[in-house]
Amino acid sequence: QVQLVESGGGLVQPGGSLRLSCAASGFTFRNYFMRWYRQTPGKERELVAQISSAGLSTMYADSVKGRFTISRDNTKNTVYLQMNSLKPEDTAVYYCKAAALAAWGQGTQVTVSS
Description:
Largest sheet: 6 strands, mixed
Strand content: over 45%
Structural class: mainly beta
Shape: globular
Radius of gyration: 13 Å
Number of strands: 10
């Protein structure tokens, strides 16, 4: 079955950086676009970034453009989200997902606070 395990979240001060990882299994990772989403209480899950199956194309939400970078390693079945210049409004639970599959991971909490 599809499994997605996010890690790398934590508490960071404004302006700081974090790198999230998502280890995938149960499907042919290299064939799928991968996405990162985030969600805060009371709000819908928001698409943050997407990367194509070979990693040649990326897209970002306007709110994170220029600060976040999505990447992937198809030899490790892992997708990453490098987050720089973090702001308090980036505080959320972050999830990864294969674009065409229904499964979600458990998420990883990112808190940006001084």
